């Protein structure tokens, strides 16, 4: 059965826009995956570890029949293919691919947690997510506009610029 899945993309090393574009091409080439929609690109301040270059972020909506862990492994393969190094948590990276939502499922595995554990706090994925679908309802029944409103209050003026 096909699922609607949202993937967050981010890059803050090298040619950031090109890194995002290359990741999109590779995602679109995964058997069993079709990209339905893509948000605009956003220039965003780093989150978590703030002493690094700004990111370019985007969210895409895909439809897939791949099970969640298979999709995760394919996305990790793309990160490796594009030269991703996992040297430090939340450190600089040329590409980061995160499964944000997988249908209406709640997944709590060692390797994968969906909805993404920090989704409700990160404007750099919530804003492009709302751009793609302003009516998204999270698995707990919360609407995107409610989540985004709460996140904006807590955001401490986090800069997010639509490119």
Topology:
Blueprint: E1 3-11, H1 16-28, E2 33-38, E3 42-44, E4 55-64, H2 68-81, E5 96-102, E6 107-108, E7 113-114, H3 123-132, H4 144-154, E8 160-162
Antiparallel strand pairs: 1-4, 1-5, 2-4, 3-4, 3-8, 6-7
Q: What is the CATH class designation?
A: Alpha Beta
Annotated CATH topology: Alpha-Beta Plaits
Give the full name of the CATH homologous superfamily. 7,8-Dihydro-6-hydroxymethylpterin-pyrophosphokinase HPPK
The whole-number mean of residue pLDDT values reads: 91
List low-pLDDT spans.
none
Shape summary: globular
Written description of the protein model:
This protein has 163 residues and is α+β, with helices and mostly antiparallel strands. It has a single domain (3-162), classed as 7,8-Dihydro-6-hydroxymethylpterin-pyrophosphokinase HPPK (Alpha-Beta Plaits), CATH 3.30.70.560. The protein has helices spanning 16-28, 68-81, 123-132, 144-154; strands at residues 3-11, 33-38, 42-44, 55-64, 96-102, 107-108, 113-114, 160-162. The strands form 2 sheets. Strands 1, 2, 3, 4, 5 and 8 form a 6-stranded antiparallel beta sheet that branches. It is globular and about 40 Å long. The mean pLDDT is 91.
Short description, anyone?
The protein has one domain: Alpha-Beta Plaits (2-Layer Sandwich), CATH 3.30.70.
Give keywords.
single chain, alpha+beta, 6-stranded antiparallel beta sheet, 4 helices, globular
């Amino acid at each position: 059965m096909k699922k609607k899945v949202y993937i967050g993309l981010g890059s803050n090393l090298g040619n950031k826009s090109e890194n995002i574009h290359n990741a999109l091409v590779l995602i679109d080439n995964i058997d069993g995956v079709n990209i339905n929609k893509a948000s605009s690109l956003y220039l965003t301040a780093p989150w978590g570890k703030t002493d690094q270059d700004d990111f370019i972020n985007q969210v895409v909506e895909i439809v897939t029949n791949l099970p969640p862990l298979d999709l995760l492994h394919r996305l990790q393969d793309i990160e490796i293919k594009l030269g991703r190094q996992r040297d430090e948590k939340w450190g600089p990276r040329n590409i980061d691919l995160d499964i944000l939502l997988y249908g209406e499922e709640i997944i709590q595995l060692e390797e994968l947690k969906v909805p993404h554990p920090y989704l409700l706090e990160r404007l750099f994925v919530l804003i492009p997510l709302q751009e793609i679908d302003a009516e998204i309802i999270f698995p707990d029944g919360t609407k995107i506009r409610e989540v985004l409103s709460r996140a904006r209050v807590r955001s401490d003026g986090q800069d997010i610029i639509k490119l």
